[in-house]
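Deviations from the work plan: none for this task. Representative record:
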Amino acid sequence: MATNLTGKTIVITGATSGIGLATAEELTRRGAHVIGVGRSVGRCRAAEERLAALNPAARPAFCTADLALQSEVRRLAGEIRGLLAARGPAALDGLVNNAGTFTYWLALTTEGFETQWAVNYLAPFLLTHELLPLLAAAPTARIVTVSSESHAHTSLRWADIQLRRRYNGLLAYQQTKLADILFTAELNRRLRGQAPHVHAFAADPGLVDTPIGQKGTPELVQWVWQRRRDAGIPPAKAAQGIIALLDEGLAPRPDTVYWRHGQPRQPSRQAQDAAAAQRLWALSEQMCGTNNGSLS
Amino acid sequence: MKSYVLITGATGGLGKAFAVECASRGWPLYLTDLRPEPLELLAGALHRTYGVPVRWRACDLTDAGQRTALCEALRSEQARFGGLINVAGGDHEGLFCEQTSAQLRSIVRLNIEATIEMTHALLRLRDASETFRIVNVASLAAFYPMPYKATYAASKRFLLDFSLALRQELAGQGVTVTALCPAGLPTTPACIAAIEAQGVMGQLTTQNTGAAAAGTLDAALAGKAVYIPGLLNRLLRALGGLVPPTVVAWFIGRRWGAARRDLGNPAESSILVPEASPA
């Protein structure tokens, strides 16, 4: 079946399970060339075999990286550049920033960032920066960052944005999902001048049946996540909403930032604060050392 | 803080929390730990994010020769110091009779010898124009004799008494000494498992490392002698002080015996594991 996505090259982070794997599977069925990213070599290999069995012609590939570390995000970007260069003209049609995590106890990465802030927010920010030249080299390109409706329960705590001093795992999670929407809005504003054929979207997958929130957390918190999971839709259904945003044939309105199941939605008032988006951008550039990048 | 603050064990769970907290306050940092790679990553990110100067040097603090070399390097680099946070410390899993003499020796070398020597060396490299702040990471274990963690708890008791005495000796000379006495901190999967094994009490007595680090620095700046993170932990400590030590040891032995059975006697580890401590 030839579709708008046949032959397109798309990077998906967190592609070895949950929403990421379901998105990778559907894209592979539609003939897209998926480059998946996962943390474990074994899980990456298993996912790659699974995709190849669905559609060998799509030539799926996987890279292993721990997105909690900026050094790893940079290394990953280099690896992706190498993969693309080996296949012909180096261009990327889509990037899905899907990888996400939940940590109940405050955990700092080797680089000193709160883990959810690093994985759920800074990694999408930095990977997008690193891959932007490849995305800009495609005729059109889409960047989808997986956010969550839970962003609406909070605002950014500027005085302690990683919540180090007053950590609460769920609040930290919600903040990263809010930051993802603010990042996407500001990214679009900057892309209009730099690369108008690249568009960014934030996707709310809805409640999805995935294993997030089950590791290293007390039973009560596991129970909360489990209730969310029980009420959730299957990952394959959530993937449809992401694929709708990648498929230029479906032409979502590029000026709308926040989407659920392929439909535009209004994010919270905090998520529409343009001044906050610019302030967050400047802070993130400092944290990632991208101050001299193409989007500055 | 205008001059450098030296942090030992800077890339471990609590050490990182101290490093980030100091950097966020704009304090210049000198970091040390066992391995160079994480030190380099942490130093780079802290400098980038907070704009403070961050130097680092890898050192195995259990090794007397390497400690001397580190102090020699500090002298020759002519860095001036405004503070020292002795975080490096650890324990080996296992019963006293199961531990090797090398393991027992390494607990004493890291927790006690390294702290004394670094404190001694840094006091000679202090910036006399500002108050010098010393923080020693002890533990709630410092207050009690602890079956199953006899050597570790006694080494922490040493640090507590050392801190209190030195604080008095140096009072009026622009030096403060603060002993941090936390309950178990959720820094590694093993520590988190130990907290979980204690059930609700584990939950209630556990503080996040970020809050512990911030509270400790506030206590140090206020010249406090001892800082215990968490209201409940302060209360438990106060109650524990009313009971004879032999009774406390009996009680802790019972609790930890049960918790150890829940955890399923963990395999003896060959490395120093950071502070998995009691409540």
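The radius of gyration of chain B is 18 Å.
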